[in-house]
Amino acid sequence: MNKNYNLSKIIFNDLISFYKTQLILIFMIFISALLIITIIHKTRLLTSQQEELDIIKKKQMPLNLEKYISTSRLKFKHEKIDT
Description:
Layout: H1 7-18, H2 20-60, H3 63-78
């Protein structure tokens, strides 16, 4: 009278009956980690695309305008605001 038990089924039933909240929390942590990775990846792609557009715009910019922008940025960096 050997009775065969399906161990994986027993473990699964125990997990569902006794550890529901822990399983839900682990699942939510896993989902949030995947979402964070996806958001970071998309943000980096958008940043690199923006940098490429800036490079293209800079190449198309006339030299006089480029000098004006660089000198005006320097002026704003060194100005002090009195309060």
